[in-house]
Queue: 2 jobs
Job 1
Amino acid sequence: MLKILINPDPILRQKAKPVTNFDDKKLQKLIPEMIETMQKSDGVGLAAPQIGESIRLAVVTYRKKTIVLINPEIIKRSLLKEWGEEGCLSVPTIYGDVKRHKKITVNYIDAQGKKQCLQAFGMLARIIQHEVDHLDGILFIDKAKKLFTLTPHESND
Ligand code: NI
């Protein structure tokens, strides 16, 4: 499991660099490690800057499917936006409502180095917008309407 950087780590605020070599050994090792880290942390998305790699890579999970997004680019955004609650593994215990485009089209490269185009709605569109923001050094707390803290119950069982 990889260590997740916590706000205000400066790496979280950098604009991440595009991936150029898709079969780079380090990248191919990093992808399953990021998926494992996301799953063990009960997250629905994880961007590479959150584990200290300032590259344009994110993993997302939705309806038990995992999507690996390399160099994601949102090429279409619906005019319609909606508010929804968000949290972030790098901003623990803090939640807030963020307005996001309801529908997006995203171009990306998958883990096999293939170009993909995905239309996403609702929750999946929200997760992808949150992760692409990470690649630009933006955190949901920058956009949230009001933030609130939820402290996890102190229980280890
Ligand atoms: Ni996040």
Job 2
Amino acid sequence: MQTPDAGTEPGKLQDEPRFALNALGEFVFYNPAFAALAGLPQAAERTRLNAAKILKFESHPDVSHEGPDNHTRRFMDQLGSGQYTLLCGPNNEATRFQFDWVEGPNGQRYLVASTAKEEVSMDIVRQIAPDKVDGGDPFAASAQLRAEELRQFLEMSDDLMCTTDPDGGIIRLNRALCGHLGYEPRAMIGKMFLDFVDPADKESAQSALSEVLSDGVRTHVSFECRMLTSAGDQRWVTWDIALSAGVLHALGRDVTHIKTHEAELSSREAQLSEAQALAHMGHWRWEVGSADVEWSSELYNIFGVDQDDFIPTMDSINALVHRRDLGRLYQAFQRAIIQQNDYDMDFRVARADGTIRVIRCEGRCEMDHDGEVIALYGIMQDITQQKEHEQALREAKEAAENAYASKSRFLANMSHELRTPLNAIIGFSDLIEKQMLGPLGNERYLDYIGAIRESGQHLLDLITDILDMSKIEAGKYELTVEPVNMTQVVRAVVQMMEARAMEGQLTLKADLPDNDVVVSADRRAVKQILLNLLSNAVKFSDKGGHVIIRLMDGQSAVTVQVQDTGIGIPAHKIADVLKPFEQVSNAFTRRHEGSGLGLAITKDLVELHGGIMGIDSRLGEGTIVMFTIPRRG
Ligand code: ATP
Ligand code: MG
């Protein structure tokens, strides 16, 4: 509690004796007139003068003195607002005072006493003791912190503190500074502040310090630098330096963790931009209603604009979008805001250099707590190259399809054209071979004509296969479905193959059910399938081998198996031999005739019937080819 210097009070208030007490009965103020009247010291004193000990009341019904120990609140409680006569000074001069209780804005009550007749207002109280009434300087109390308290606070603080002489020599420091830099206090006191600054930052720290030291214009400076720990590590510290009474006060904060986070963040940002650059992709965000759009750096490259000149706004971006795509873009954004859904679209950008880029935009909506869309955000990717590839691929596919179609057309036409003369060659050579119109003069002619007929037949078989293959590939092979007695067909085909089997010195057997197995199928196709499989089995078996064909009746399908003890097919070739013109080439197979179309046609014909075909083969042991013809309906 401070008794203000009476001499500093405003003049008007000094005229009449006045004083003010707080609720504890302590003088918060008295003026020189009252000091003179009551015989109190004029100068400010730091003692808490107690009114109960000083004020003497002329006998008054409400105020009783109960001795010096029983004062304060009780005494104050007795003092209501009103007129009191005080016996003042050594002569007990009776003086009449008006007592008024007033409440200050800080909620404290004050008793103001005056011999004047004017009404006591808060203004007077404020003039009397502004620091008491308004709370004054809120930090005034801190100024009175005792040394012990200060020491305690300094111990607790994690801020780095030290004082230095004007040359920067450390005079005093706190525990935090030693702790952060890993030194004993003794190792730092007397050393230069700059000795602990990382050499890389010494120059900038030096110039910051000299700002407060040398020019004297500034008393305060802030800077950031790296400090070196005793272990040689770096700590980032932001320093506030103030010059006062020739001493530098340095207050620092260790911001190493913030710097580390910042570094991590910027490295991640760099990685993200790099990844975005690699993917030709960038991200964007637009707050609904705002003119500006946030762009990541790669978007500037994608749109072909300069990051320093171009400001991405709705208008500036729209100006780059291809005229024909603008409507769609607007629509997509509008729909997203209204329907609150995700969206994606492709649009073209006409760059300033005249090139057109195709951009894919994928976006999401950002909602507020009420579920309203407040922003749109997403990514944009330059997919021009991808689009070009797609286009090239589409064109290549179309070209391939066209080429394939014309090849099939050519093969079909050519085969057809070749069949007629071939039939004539075969027919007439057969007629000559049989010497229907009279004997041939020379025996060797007979051999030749036989060779002509066989070659013609071989050519015709090949052409028929090619024709079938191209018909199937063109989707023009039509099945003539009728009830086919499979038992009979198998028997017939086995008979046809018997001569060839005998020629190869093989046994050929059929394993057939007793009853007739009838299935809806194309008779010619079924025959062709069986002949192809049996001819392979016979062709790829060595002397003394066995070929067996099995027919199995089933509820949903009829199954046929052709098994041989031939050379077998390597496992990795099984898928290949089902494709046209694919043959296993080795010394043995090369001895066999064939174009490699048989299995491809067979498989296609089985599948045209809705059936499946499979091959199980072991090299050197033999092969089983099986297929099914499903029963219809
Ligand atoms: P084509 O049948 O057109 O006269 P090809 O018999 O060579 O000629 P495919 O019937 O398609 O053609 O058979 C393709 C290849 O599969 C054959 O060349 C052969 O290498 C192999 N192959 C087929 N069946 C057998 C089998 N039963 N045993 C061993 N290899 C076989
Ligand atoms: Mg074959």
